[in-house]
């Protein structure tokens, strides 16, 4: 029944479980799930910063009691003892070593480019916004690994006297380019012409194929037949072990211009190259919070579909981690929508009975593969979540795409009732 939506316990109000939370995050709240998602796809591009814990001031009771001062008239004046001098020297040396060990690398990292494993010569696309400052342009070029050092870019701009001649727009450039060649292209102007292929954040491979068909006339079936991980794993090792041989999650969302008649292979490689450029600072072979990179991509795809508000993504990530730690089903509706094959209608009772590994109402843990192509902000949120004890979130009654988060089940029910009242 299309409109038979039940009081979904768990994702929208499950009974508490007695299992304690795991070690990744502390949680003293009853174990129960509780999310109601809002619209998908992010339009924002701001970085979420996780707050750092504030340490209480140190109090050494009894160790700093005041001593009566000794008058210079009561005893002869003496210089510091040799032992005190030695201790002072050691302390100074240690302080200098600390500065060299910690401060210098920090400063060096700030002013020097980060190392990258992106090979030179890979095509990437960047957009230079109207009115962008030199710092914004240098940052975008560096993040895309088109230049390896912003200082070389500034030097090239000065040498070519190009500061007032740089033009905004869309550019096709290459990783590891000579900075002067980059500046010459920016002076010449945008080099992206012809048809544009728009891949929005949160699209599935199926939806991407539909956009490709609309832009270039390549049929959905032809694109999907080519879009197999096994066709590309030799050139893109992070695809090894991709679930069900799918490229789901790795066709990076962006606006592309690929000429007038690209092949399906040309398009897929352009999207994979963009993924490599966007994630170049991430170690694909590492684990993050106990998850492999492919599991991080699964989580990032869920985060992408759960909130369109970039600042909320680390919070959504914390809820997912807390549920995993508590061995509770995630019960995220976006995964159910993927399991049933898409559609814009709400999740129904019958949907929750779908026999699929993506049914995170029935199955505990993450989905076996990503459910969409996430933005870099969702990937970073999955790697670096907020540190909370939240177990629930529900769309805000303000109907502005934001959510209310809580660790208390009763508070979640109140938030859900408030949202339901505003939505009716």
Please describe what this structure looks like.
By secondary structure, the protein is mostly helical. Among the domains are: 123-188, Endolytic murein transglycosylase (Dna Ligase, domain 1), CATH 3.30.1490.480; 196-278, no CATH class; 293-423, no CATH class. It is 36% helix and 6% strand. It has twelve helices and six strands. The strands form three sheets. The chain has a two-stranded antiparallel ribbon with strand order 1-2. Strand 5 (392-395) and strand 6 (403-406) form a beta hairpin. The longest helix is centred in the N-terminal third of the chain and has 30 residues, at 82-111. It is found in: Cell membrane. Residues 1-77 are annotated as: Disordered. It catalyses: a peptidoglycan chain = a peptidoglycan chain with N-acetyl-1,6-anhydromuramyl-[peptide] at the reducing end + a peptidoglycan chain with N-acetylglucosamine at the non-reducing end.
Strand content: 5-15%
Unreliable stretches:
1-33, 37-79, 83-87, 92-116
The class by helix and strand makeup works out as mainly alpha
Mean pLDDT across all amino acids: 78
Q: Which features would summarize this protein structure in a list?
A:
about 425 residues, mainly alpha, Dna Ligase, domain 1, two-stranded antiparallel ribbon, 12 helices, 6 strands, disordered N terminus, lytic endotransglycosylase activity, Endolytic murein transglycosylase, transmembrane, EC 4.2.2.29, lyase
